[in-house]
């Protein structure tokens, strides 16, 4: 019998993936990520309007996503837009939502 199926030889990889999943494990953050997949880039004000949440709440969720490397910022003058920064997310979200394409 092969006992290596559950071998924890690369705990760093497991920790990184667990942190990624933790960052996604909130309904608002999932909505933000899915929205960014559809819109490609977006500022906090637009997200705040769509989510009907205070700007500070949206910013807190974005900071968690940013800390996990899921989103990044692009500055255009005074405007700061958020974009997806991790290609794995673009593969995961359609699977989670059972969609072929999240851009529709």
From TrEMBL:
- GO molecular function per UniProt: DNA binding; DNA-binding transcription factor activity
Among the Pfam families in the record, one is: HTH_20
Q: Does the keyword DNA-binding apply?
A: yes
InterPro entries attached here?
Answer: ArsR-like_HTH, HTH_ArsR_DNA-bd_dom, Metal_resp_trans_reg, WH-like_DNA-bd_sf, WH_DNA-bd_sf
Question: Per its UniProt record, what CDD domains does this chain match?
Answer: HTH_ARSR
Look up keyword Transcription regulation and say if it applies.
yes
Q: Which SMART domains match?
A: HTH_ARSR
List each copy of the HTH arsR-type domain by range: 9-104
Return the PROSITE patterns for the record: HTH_ARSR_2 (PS50987)
Which keywords belong to this entry?
Answer: DNA-binding, Transcription, Transcription regulation
Residues making up the signal peptide according to the UniProt record: none
Superkingdom, natural source = Bacteria
Protein name, UniProt field: Transcriptional regulator, ArsR family
Q: The organism's lineage? A: Bacteria, Bacillati, Bacillota, Bacilli, Bacillales
